[in-house]
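Structure, all two chains, one model.
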Amino acid sequence: VTLRVIIDRRRCIGAGTCLYIAPSAFRWRDGDFLKPELLDPSTVEDDVLREAAAACPTQAILLEDVEDTFPSAGFPL
Amino acid sequence: VGDEVANELFLTHERLTRTQLEQVGALETKYRGDGFMVLFSSARQAINAAVAIQRAIEEYNRENTELPMKVKMGLNSGDVMQQSGEAYGIAVHAASRIADKAQGGQILVSQIVHDLAGMLPKLRVADRGLFWLKGLPARWRLFEVLWRERSERPEGSKGRAVTAESRAELDLPRARGPVVGRTVALQAVSEEIARAGAGGLRVVILEGEAGIGKTRVLEAAAQLAEGSDPSFWALPVAADEELRGPFLLFRTLIGEPRVSAIAEGAMALEALERARDALGGSGSFRQEGLAPQEQMLRLFDDVASAISALARERPLALLLDDLQWADEDSIRLTRYLVRTLASLPIFMLIATRPNLDSSGGASNLIVDMERMHLARRLWLDRFSRGETSALLENLLGSPVAGPTLESLHSRAEGVPFFIEEFARAYREAKVLQLIDGIWTMTRLSGPTVPASVQSLIARRLAQPPEEARRLLADAAVLGRRFRLSDLSGVLSAVEGGEAVPEWHLEDRLQPAVDSGIVTRLPDGPDYDYSFTHDQIRAALVDSSSRQRRRAIHGAMASGLASAEGRENLSTLAYHALHAGDEQLAVSYALQAGRAGLEVHAPEESIRIIESTLAAASAPGDRIAMLRVKDDALALLDRGRERMANLAEMGALTGALADPSVDMEVKLRRASAARMTGDFDIAAELARQVQQAAATLGDPASELDACLELGQAITHSPLGEGFWPLVELDIEAAAEPFTRALELARQVGDRGKEAACLRELAVLEAGRAKLSLMADSREGKGLAEIIGLAPKRLAGAKELADQAFQIYEELGDRRGAMSALISTAYAHVTDPTARGMAGRLEQVRQLYHSRLTTESQRAVDDALMLYSIHVYARANAHPDLALERGRQAFEAARAIGDRWLEFLAAGGMAMTLLSLGDHAEAEAWVDRAASAARAAPRPALARRLEMWRGMLAGSKGEGEGLVRHLERAADLADEHNSPAGRCEALARLAMEAAKLGTEQNDLRLLERADAAAAEILDLVRTLPGHLPWEAMARAASSLVAHTQGRSHDAAEAARSALGILEPRLNRTHYLDVLWAVGRALIAAGAPESEDLVREIHEDLVHVDQTIVDQAVKARWFAVPMHRELAEMAAYEPAEMSPGPEPLPEGLEEGELEILRLLTSGSNDEEIATGLNAHEQDVHQRVSGLLLKLGVSSRLAATEYAVKAGIL
């Protein structure tokens, strides 16, 4: 995946559309409030992640290009 | 060892071997300095000699323990051609390949040698299984001659310990099953084979780096050619890196015994004989005293005649591997053949590594063939993650767990040879274990690089000259990617003297580019070169001295330090650390770690901190680093790891004796405790800090403690909760937030002030709702309660609004959004609003009015409309889904977003299918298709196929259903999306089962079962509880139920229910519920009582949320929904008769237009009536006429009256 997926839980109200669209990328998180968390975004195409982000009613799924945000990511340390 | 010692070894080896050979009277044909090629007159003689040599070497080793020698041997038998004392032929080639498979001290023999030798006194032979030998067709069975006496075997080993090691090495066959990931290449090969078969020579050129799997494709091509119609003779041959000689490629090819065997006609045999003689140097033309040039041409002619005679009998597939190593004569002959045999049915596949072609002969040949339009060039890429997974599964026989796959894939970087070798080595080291049917790495670090990979790398590194290699070793220290300017700077800093100009370095690196060690990156601001594989880079780093590496790191660190920029920070930390400057390393690592947090890259922060933490010795530094790590772990939700990290941080605070740090660590521990669900511990810690801070008079710490306490009580992180938990003591929860609000105002922290206000708003709204509920319990009517609500909720709204204002002032969008959503939750709940859906609408309105700027508004609104559509569709609110879906579609068109247009149109189609309206659904799928055509993206093609498949299914077209959904599954494969494949198959299973049941079509039922079986395999490699598995089980259940296997049906239904229940939303998957219900209720299973109740609940929910009575009627009229209602004995509540279902193809809006039309309104009046633009109305009227198949408004009116619409 070239996309980094971030769920902003301060916007997320648990509508669950992301799970509906990409159930292998998201799952319900344990806890008192029904909100999703990331499962394995690499199992789906980037476009499906974009679709899930578009289908979030509070636009709580943020997608970032990894290369853009942190060019040295993956640099062997 | 040094050169001298090596020479010594070689000489000893030579002497020992020669002595033994003389004793048996063998004929030595070639000595290469480190290896012999020897001809024996019998298999027994060969084996005896091999054993004698191994024993002599063993003897030598016993006396020279410091430098033992190990020799590998391979024995084969077959026809051999000799020329000027050297032997050629496929049998010779095979012998050399067999020796390659052996390890030091091992003798491997082919099946034929094994058979010919018969029983051997005092020797045992072990079958080692089947192997691919490079350049040879089919797999070879190899046997090991166990030449050591039992007592001689190394100490401490039992029985076959020596060979046990090699056993494991030999255990994994090179590859099994179908070729992985080369669909495109093999497709091209098939096409070209077909074209060649139809008459006319065709060539496919296969290019790619070492280890990419060219030979594997070559082997597959041989099978394709043999299996095609007409069937080809497949003749594979490989050029050799070490064995070279004039025409070697063709001497091997023509000399192969199989070639004589396939030549049936006398003409072909005769031509073959002539060609063999010509290549062997005894051609008849030799006597005629021709000029060398003439002789050469005659030789070419003879070979061409032989090949054409063969090709006339049956099409011929010539498979030339490793052409980059072919001798020049062979290349010239190939060129000649291509020119003269163009009209014959010959398929030629040439595998080559273009960079290694030193003479350029092979490259020129390829270019010529392309120019003649005979050749097609294919480039083999590295494997994607999905392909790696498939390869491993082929190799190991079972799927591989996700993290294991990730680790193997990233180590091998998708090079198939590396993947296989790593898998082999890890399995051998027992790091890779089969756990519950899935290969799992027991620790993700794994052992060192396998010897086979090392030797491949060593061979590649041996190619460029020494000077380039030294330069590469320096560059390798800089990193996987490097800049020429850095390299130049580092060199002048380390070696002194003038800076080497970049162009000069570029020249010196060219050989390394040629041999595929580094690649030149496209011109750009970033790096100039990249190592092709990190394993190569690691080997190079190891080759330079520690001292030099340190110096280079040091130079790099000081060079980077002068160049500002966040992107350099982690690189800087890395170089500073390895240069031994720990203070600098720590300082940069801290900056890099913080930068990672800022851009939401916590994994990166953790990586940097962990790699440098050991260098931080001062407690202050360590605490600072652990703090960054804790923040990163918090972002990642990793509570347990936070606890461990904080334990170390806590131990360090003692050294600092700073109470504020002490309090900070306690609060961090509280927050970590909340993360793991230990709310009481969190609250206790927060209270301790609150008291301590109050005593110390430290309002900032007290504020933090209050906030922490509040979160511990509400169980909700700041900004994340929108309603209080049912059992929450609201007054107790409000207390710390109220105090925190005072403190925030006192210290002037606006952000925390807003956070407190928002939390208090949530609590206040909860309090108001509790009081309204109490009123309701006391018997107040609904209307009265709705009347009371605004006043009761006013306080909550006011608080949320205040929070919103502050966030807006601070420019904190996330905060503002969170506050705004709280405002939405403080709104009165309209009884007709649909729970969450109503909430979403509320948020949308608020967002629209308050947050977005004018320019962004259209885009945001389109997205929000679409998202509400998706929500409504998923949760069985078809009326809302239709309304918002259409609006989203129109909004997307207005802003020109074809992708969203596509999604909305597809969503409309699926909603309409859920209402049983395929005609209208089809129109929407077509709209989606046209949007997709305007803006093609790979994932759209898959979605579209899914929709088309579902549509075909609901129209009862089994063939279309299967075709489209299979295509969708294949597309997902192409995009390496296992989840996409699973989704497509799940739909296929479900729809085929439904339709198969409906039409009593056995083939569809079988297809459903097959798809279900594949899903069960696939989901094992995917994480989580996936609805697709539930769908697969439901489909199997349905198939079993239809076929009268009620026990199987009930079993499968139970599994389906088991997956659906705990983690998934039932209303998203009503068809699963339906299939499960069929099986369990019919079987009278004990679960059916609960199930009926649940279905009942779901139907009540659907019934209450569909507002539009007409849509509701349509929904309940769909056979599947009707059946669900029957199962639960459910009658939809007071379904008002409402308007009749619309005539086929008409939509709600269009009906309204038709009404207005027939009442005589013009476009303008209709526009007013519909609150729409006149132009839109004009278009929609035209569309309507088209749909009704009438030419005028008058005709439309007549139609409407006749059809009884009005």
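The beta strands of chain A are 3-7, 26-28, 36-38, 61-65.
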